[in-house]
Structure formats: C-alpha cells, structure tokens
Amino acid sequence: MRLCVFLLIAGLLDAVLTHFGMASGIVDEGNPMMKLVIEKSWSFFYIIKILLPLLLLGLFYLRPFKGWIRTLLVSTCVLYFSVLVYHMVWMVLYFNSAS
C-alpha cells in the first residue's frame, strides 16, 4: 500500500515539476507519449498522473500485490525516484545559474 501511495505522491510531484520546467523553458518532456498528452492539454496530463496511481491503489485494496507484480511495483517506484532526482538536479542547476 505504501508503494502505491508513494507512486501517487511522486506522480503529482513529477507533474508539477514538469509543468514548472516546461513553462519556464528549462526542460522538455522526455516521454513521447506524455508529450502528446501535454500538447493536447495540461489537464489531461494531470488527470493521467492522478488516475493511474489511484487505480493501482484500488487494485491493491482489492487484492494485495505479491510476487512479480510487487517486483514491478518496486521497480516503478525506483524509476520514479530517479525521475525526481533528475528534477532536483535540473532545478539546482537552473537556480544556481540564475544567481
């Protein structure tokens, strides 16, 4: 359950930081599918970033994840954590160069 909550929080943080970075012209979206979604609407982008982890939470509530599904969930959390580290790096670089 905690991993699903982490994905929800990480997804929201990723969405907000991506929006800030793109609106500021600092970064571009690296995921081609999400880039298409953003081109359609930022609202769709946020809806996807919220609904997918909520769906996972609902599925977990119905049947806790075990075995290889849990391994995939842990891998996804590690990947999201690395994305958040990447966001922190570009933010530090941006704010240090702006000073």
Q: Provide a count of the helices.
A: 4
Largest sheet: none
What is the overall silhouette? Answer: globular
Structural class: mainly alpha
In words, what does this structure look like?
The chain is mainly alpha-helical. The chain has one domain (2-98). The chain is built from four helices and no strands. The longest helix has 31 residues, at 68-98. The model has no long low-confidence stretch (mean pLDDT 88).
What secondary-structure arrangement, pairings included, does this model have?
Elements: H1 2-24, H2 32-40, H3 42-62, H4 68-98
Notable characteristics:
85% helix; single chain; 99 residues; mainly alpha
In short:
The chain is mainly α and 99 residues long. Helix content is 85%, strand content 0%. The model has no long low-confidence stretch (mean pLDDT 88).
